[in-house]
Amino acid sequence: MSRKLVILTEGHTNPHTAKTASCIIRYRRDEVVALLDATQAGKTTQDLLGVGGDLPVVSKLGEADGANTLLLGIAPPGGKIPASWRAIILEAIAKKMNILAGLHDFLSDDPEFVAAAEKNGVTLTDVRKNAERTIARRVGLRSDCLRVLTVGHDCSVGKMVTSVELTHALKARGQAAKFIATGQTGIMVEGDGCPIDRVIADFVSGSVEKMILEHQHNDILIVEGQGSLIHPSYSAVTLGLLHGALPHAMVMCYEVGRDCITGVEHVKIPPLAKIIQLNEMMASITQASRVIGIAMNSRRVNADEAEQERERVRAELGLPVCDVIRHGPDELVDAILAFKATDGWKAGE
Amino acid sequence: MSRKLVILTEGHTNPHTAKTASCIIRYRRDEVVALLDATQAGKTTQDLLGVGGDLPVVSKLGEADGANTLLLGIAPPGGKIPASWRAIILEAIAKKMNILAGLHDFLSDDPEFVAAAEKNGVTLTDVRKNAERTIARRVGLRSDCLRVLTVGHDCSVGKMVTSVELTHALKARGQAAKFIATGQTGIMVEGDGCPIDRVIADFVSGSVEKMILEHQHNDILIVEGQGSLIHPSYSAVTLGLLHGALPHAMVMCYEVGRDCITGVEHVKIPPLAKIIQLNEMMASITQASRVIGIAMNSRRVNADEAEQERERVRAELGLPVCDVIRHGPDELVDAILAFKATDGWKAGE
């Protein structure tokens, strides 16, 4: 039986909080039956999230015809299940639906959900659950597998989407490329990966290195970035990822107009040039690594403004710049292939 | 009933692997009855670890007169219990001893240990166990509590010992200072703290910030560093700690003669000046922070060599330098108090 999803975003259907929903709709549209948010019923996901075309927003589980799985579609800070969602989750279980979640609070640790799931013969899947105990060793890395990491000036700026779009485009050009998912949504999209923000701190780099070693028979790995080196709350995840992935090249992702750090809005985001400098320094401790392009997320501005910003950043940084959704990823794909052709990176490790 | 410890280091009694044992002996000598290592029985801990005077190394639990607690005294990479130790731990439990451990493998997750402990009415304490779920918010930090973080060029170079010695010396000079323990040994020494390398990556900075908020009624917090920003395996822990502690000043700890990274010995440690630069850059994103002194660990060299090295590093970096054990911590304490007196740091946050 194939997976037919109804995505729960009740009360949270906006592009920022419902980023799991947005990305599943973007990359797994054929599996999605409806979005569930009684406060927005009657609209489409295109209206609210900018993706999905005529995919409906419904007010009741019963209106999601044919759905067999409830996916929790938000990524709140700290990853907690909103209290008001309990009844909806229990109703879905009673309707014999499987539940799929990526939160820090595990469904499978909740006695009420576990008992209900057993009674109804359905599964509770916590994508963030892991038992990672691998320490990074920096041994056995294939010298001619190009590792590219997306990095960012903040969390939730489009590192996952950029990584997926780059991987798709590289494959379309005949490259043996693989997307390395490091967050719950990326894992749901790709079908494999590791939720590194949920790994015990000592093993973050090791869990990333393990994925690299597993997939380095590909010629290019595009590794999904997490957080930001300048984020006061999540920089541990970011640096562990950077040192576990040991990228030869990086793509810097940023959102046009964002100037405060998500979750700590009283702290300003430094200029992009500064963030590039910090990433290059921390990535280049044992081998050279540099930012080779900029992925701008221009969803909050119009086409003219996006074009002006693109030119401004190109001129300021001397790097290729594009919005992988608005402009397509070709300019960054060209940059990756040009970098790959230089061969100098193979001497690194 | 007061705690009387026998410390288990069977087969691992050297200053590097048995660093938990060394530090407990150094700072909790009055609680320790003996060290247990049948391969070294008859020697003293002073012979093997350089601390403890005539504290005996015994070959059997029965020789540790009056001990009521077995402490597992090593800190191996990955934090696993050596397989050969199971029988010793079970024997201690059968002798009605409590067990105290700081490993990643929890005694309290092991059905055989749990059953034996229940049967014998003893406790299993896993110092690394935690349920941290706090996200760093950068809100509520007291502007006139000076935060000093020990940082390092590698793991296991003496950040904990430096932090404890600095705190003791500051208190002796009448300062309201507090040691903030962030690792299992520091917690055993201080009696409180958080084992941040065992915290889920998303919550590392938050768990540190929580301790800062709890103890900032003191005038000076000396925060125990972990790992190194340049360590390929553990840098996630280090950066999360740096951003959670948001130090005004840092003390750089290094071991004389160490040139390869612990656990990844094929990777060279960069020069100290470079590591200071990286730490200052990553610490100064939102407020200025700088390294104000160097704690050298000179245990592998003689007094003359230590003095030469001290002069060399002083001249190279223009900073106060001392080995807090060999020379005492006064030079670094002077540097902290001089920095505190400048007042400029209070404008930071």
Average pLDDT figure of chain A: 96
Name the chain pair whose interface involves the most residues.
A-B, 47 and 47 residues
Q: Percent helix among the residues of chain A?
A: 25-40%
Structural class of chain A: alpha/beta
The SSE string of chain A, one letter per element, is EHEHEEHEHEEHEHHEHEEEHEHEH
Biggest sheet features of chain A = 6 strands, parallel
Describe the structure.
The structure is a homodimer of 349-residue chains. Chain A has helices at residues 19-27, 45-49, 86-94, 111-120, 159-172, 184-190, 204-215, 235-245, 272-283, 303-317, 330-342; strands spanning 5-8, 32-36, 57-58, 69-72, 98-101, 124-126, 146-152, 177-180, 220-223, 249-255, 260-261, 264-268, 290-297, 321-322. Chain A has 349 residues and is of the alpha/beta class. In chain A, the strands form 3 sheets. Chain A has a 6-stranded parallel sheet with strand order 3-2-1-4-5-6, sandwiched between helices. In chain A, strands 8-9-7-10-13-14 form a 6-stranded parallel sheet, with helices on both faces. A two-stranded antiparallel sheet of chain A has the order 11-12. In chain A, strand 2 (32-36), helix 2 and strand 3 (57-58) form a beta-alpha-beta unit. In chain A, helix 1 packs parallel to helix 6, helix 3 (86-94) packs parallel to helix 4 (111-120) and helix 7 (204-215) runs parallel beside helix 8. Chains A and B meet through helix 7, helix 8, strand 12 and helix 9 of A and helix 7, helix 8, strand 12 and helix 9 of B.
